[in-house]
């Protein structure tokens, strides 16, 4: 699950990123509205936590540009502006939710979970590929009824593959959707996690699902 945090108070930004990462989210972050547009142009996110009072473009302007570009990425406003007028304006602009500072992190976390569940691309919370099931909400993975334990990054890679089942995805696509833009990832890292997944998903089963497409990338092959 990939989130973008846009908050100009650096201490608050870093605290949010740290706590969300401990919950298993992959989090990118920036401190102003113009940078937010760059991030949202470069990558697809499962959700955005967006302050309103930002340097450059404010949160309302960022959201307007996002929606004008046709992107329905879920957005949660996190702002000190708690007047009813501001909340109504935020929701009318296209935000999915609005939390007023100060806030309790548990509430923010609960609202993020609800917000990302409503993402238009997600028609159901359990993805299936043959006898493999991947539960988007609980992170439970089973194959032929056997429970498989995955690390957060292994789950993120598998989730990306199952969302794109029977479609060839490149190493670069996997990398850009799983690892931070601030990090210097590498195709070798993607290969490492594919090896981990093969041991857990394919090794003990006759039918192998994770296919290497030579010179291109990988595909999760499903016989539907």
Topology:
Elements: E1 2-6, H1 10-22, E2 26-30, H2 33-42, E3 47-50, H3 59-68, E4 75-79, H4 84-93, E5 97-100, H5 105-117, E6 126-129, E7 132-135, E8 141-143, E9 146-148, H6 152-163, E10 169-170, H7 171-178, H8 187-202, E11 210-213, E12 217-220
Parallel strand pairs: 1-2, 1-3, 3-4, 4-5
Antiparallel strand pairs: 6-7, 7-8, 8-9, 10-12, 11-12
Helix pairs in contact: 2-3, 6-8, 7-8
Give a short overview.
This protein is an alpha/beta fold and 224 residues long. 41% of the residues lie in helices and 21% in strands.
What does it look like?
The protein is α/β, with parallel strands linked by helices. The protein is built from eight helices and twelve strands. The chain has helices at 10-22, 33-42, 59-68, 84-93, 105-117, 152-163, 171-178, 187-202; strands at residues 2-6, 26-30, 47-50, 75-79, 97-100, 126-129, 132-135, 141-143, 146-148, 169-170, 210-213, 217-220. The chain has a five-stranded parallel β-sheet with strand order 2-1-3-4-5, sandwiched between helices. α2 packs parallel to α3 (59-68) and α6 (152-163) packs across α8. The two termini are 26 Å apart. The mean pLDDT is 87.
Rg on CA atoms, Å: 19 Å
For the largest sheet, list the strands in their spatial order. Answer: 2-1-3-4-5
Distance between the termini: 26 Å
How many E-type strands? 12
Q: Proportion of β residues?
A: 15-25%
Average pLDDT for all residues: 87
- Uncertain residue segments: none
Query: Helix amount, in percent?
Result: 40-55%
Number of helices: 8
Oligomer: single chain
Encode the helix/strand succession as letters. EHEHEHEHEHEEEEHEHHEE
- Global shape: elongated
**Major sheet size, sense and barrel closure:** 5 strands, parallel
